[in-house]
Design a protein that fits this description.
The complex is a heterodimer of chains A (316) and B (276). In chain A, 78% of the residues lie in helices and 0% in strands. Chain A is mostly helical. Chain A folds into two domains: 76 residues, no CATH class; 199 residues, MetI-like fold (Orthogonal Bundle). In chain A, helix 1 crosses helix 3 and helix 10 runs antiparallel to helix 12. The two termini of chain A are 20 Å apart. The relative contact order of chain A is 0.10. With 276 residues, chain B is of the alpha/beta class. The longest helix of chain B has 20 residues. In chain B, the strands form two sheets. Chain B has a six-stranded mixed sheet, sandwiched between helices. Chain B contains nine helices and nine strands. In chain B, strand 6, helix 7 and strand 7 form a beta-alpha-beta unit. Classes of the chains: A mainly alpha (316), B alpha/beta (276).
Chain lengths: 316, 276
């Protein structure tokens, strides 16, 4: 326990320290401007002159007020405790103490992060299932059909070179024009990102049985589908889970990107709203929530992998 | 030679004259097209194997012994010549479940238990569930693995894994057993024991067995007929009908008859090399 906790704690503390230090120069210009407006005399001359000075110089020479950068209303880079506070406010604070929260109203507040995380999670799961299924089917096709082997892979690779940020609005607009809205367009974008690792992993996995295994199947006159179900698919399970872990994280990214242009809820919408209104703390809180969600999803896939492999007799 | 053994041999001899051979090869050629040009893997191989024989194929690497076995199993197709298994084409014989094949590696599926592995061909061949269970139990006893059905392959030693793979080949009652260096990856001590067990198994099941090996003592100890082959091109240089009785204790390997056969095999192998 101690051996795992200490290194993790060490890294977290290092990140927090770096973050606090970085927040000082990042916010120093606003801090100095505010102090000047309040009538204090500041180092660095008038505003126009200050623009030419480095952030570190301003911070060091205005040392008495520099730490105000940790407690601004709208910081350029919020300090960790501000993000933590916002995270608390928009989850527990919103749900328990607000009139819109689950305690008062019986449903999650649409201003709270829990609601938005739920929206994102739903679309992520649907997109992940579509993507994983498509990935497995494509891999099965690639392994069994030479034409698919030659043709599908190049397109799959090309599909991943297109920036998803450019493609997402197009998918949403096109699907909207045929009357599909809401969760599905986001799920499609999410599936678009998640099928690829599954295809790559499964093609590799389905091809792991060696010639001897295939010959053995042949001597029993096994059909192609028996070979697939009894040999190739079970043999590919470790590869499947390795790629599913990558795919589910990609799914989450896809969903969030799909939520940016729509603004109908979700962590992506929340992030973009935060940037419209200069609410950096809100962006960071949403980012942190997305990170927690991703960590949970990847952990869940790992748990499922351990369960499945144990059921398949792999020594623990 | 014991009187008992000689009658068995005599019976086998008279039987083979009346009945059609189980495996009959006439002028079989097989040429592989490789990047370096054609390679003659089998040249003019003619051989007929009567029912119930234990035939070993011995020779250096590349002599075509495994290739011939693969032709019998319809895993390769001869370029010319005729090859029949149970009077059928090898492909038809495979579909009629004429043979069980044992490879050098046990090739058990790690995600299936031993019983599950033995059940696999039975599932594919569509045996009813109850019969699958009965057959799995029977062959597990036959190879002395009763009680290990629920273990996974990694929980068994290499020798036990290979026994399980033999059980798998026996499970669907093919009357021909094709074995491609089944004990090649095992150590000498385990190999000796499995040779003895295999001979027992063969005596009990009376299956026609084709056995590929690198080892002269193994070939002489097990076989009623030894086919000596040599490489480039792969061909038969000698066919030796063993004078040894069917009942063979391990110490038969010190007897003069045994040594005489081994000497002849060694001679055949050497002759094959001189010609190249």
């Amino acid at each position: 326990m101690r051996r795992t906790v200490l290194p993790v704690l060490g890294v977290v503390l290092a990140i927090l320290a770096f973050w606090y230090v970085a927040a000082i120069p990042m916010n120093i210009r606003e801090v100095v401007t505010e102090a000047e407006r309040a009538g204090a005399s500041v180092w660095g001359g008038p505003a126009t002159e200050r623009q030419g000075r480095s952030a570190w110089a301003l911070a060091v020479n205005n040392a008495p007020i520099a730490l105000n950068g940790w407690s601004q209303e709208r910081p350029r880079l919020p300090a960790p405790h501000q993000v933590a506070q916002e995270l608390y406010q928009s989850t527990i604070g919103e749900e328990v103490f607000s009139r819109r929260g689950i305690v008062q109203k019986g449903e999650f507040s649409n201003r709270g992060l829990v609601y938005h995380a739920g929206v994102t999670l739903g679309a992520t799961m649907v997109g992940f299932l579509i993507g994983a299924a498509a990935g497995v089917l494509l891999a099965v096709g690639i392994v069994h059909n030479r034409a698919m082997d030659m043709s599908v892979m190049p397109w799959a690779i090309i599909s991943q070179t297109i920036p998803i940020v450019a493609l997402a609005p197009m998918i949403i607009v096109v699907m909207n024009s045929v009357g599909v809205q809401g969760l599905l367009p986001k799920a499609v974008i999410s599936a678009y990102l998640s099928f690829f690792p599954v295809v790559v992993g499964m093609v590799k996995g389905l091809r792991t049985p060696d010639q001897m295994q295939l010959d053995l199947m042949h001597t029993w006159s096994a059909s192609t589908s028996e070979r697939l179900w009894k040999l190739r698919l079970p043999a590919s399970v470790p590869y499947l889970f390795a790629s599913l872990k990558v795919a589910i994280a990609a799914s989450l990214v896809g969903t969030i990107v799909g939520e940016l242009p729509v603004q109908r809820g979700g962590l992506g919408a929340r992030m973009l709203a935060g940037s419209y209104y200069g609410q950096t703390t809100q962006i960071w809180a949403a980012l942190l929530m997305a990170a927690v969600l991703a960590a949970f999803l990847v952990w869940f896939m790992g748990w499922l992998e351990r369960r499945t492999l144990r059921a398949m007799g792999v020594p623990a | 030679m014991s009187p008992d053994g000689s009658t068995v041999m005599a019976n086998a001899a008279s039987f083979s004259q009346t009945a059609a051979p189980v495996i009959d090869a006439q002028g079989v050629n097989l040429v592989f097209q490789t990047a370096d040009g054609p390679v003659q893997a089998l040249k003019d191989v003619s051989l007929s194997i009567p029912k119930g024989e234990f035939v070993s194929f011995i020779g250096p690497s590349g002599c075509g012994k495994t290739t011939f076995l693969r032709c019998v199993a319809a895993l390769e197709t001869p370029t010319s010549g005729t090859l029949t298994v149970n009077g059928m084409s090898p492909d038809a014989a495979r579909r009629a479940r004429a043979y069980g094949y044992v490879f050098q590696a046990a090739g058990l599926y790690p995600w299936r238990t031993i019983a599950g592995n033995i059940r696999l061909p039975l599932e594919i061949m569509g045996f009813p569930r109850a019969e699958q269970d009965a057959r799995v139990d029977r062959v597990l006893k036959l190879v002395d693995l009763a009680g290990f059905g629920r273990k996974y392959p990694w929980q068994l030693s290499g020798g036990m894994q290979q026994r399980a793979s033999i059980a798998r080949a026996l499970a669907f009652d093919a009357d021909i057993l094709l074995m491609d260096e089944p004990f090649g990856a095992l150590d000498e001590i385990v190999r000796d024991r499995l040779n003895e067990e295999l001979l027992n198994l063969w005596a009990r099941t009376q299956k026609t067995t084709l056995f590929v090996t690198h080892s002269i003592p193994e070939a002489v100890y097990l076989s009623t007929k030894i086919v000596v082959m040599s490489p480039r091109p792969g061909r038969i240089t000698d066919i030796i009908d063993s004078p040894l009785p069917r009942e063979r204790p391990l110490d038969i390997r010190e007897s003069p008859e045994f040594l005489a056969v081994a000497h002849r095999v060694r001679g055949g192998l050497r002759a094959g090399h001189v010609e190249v």
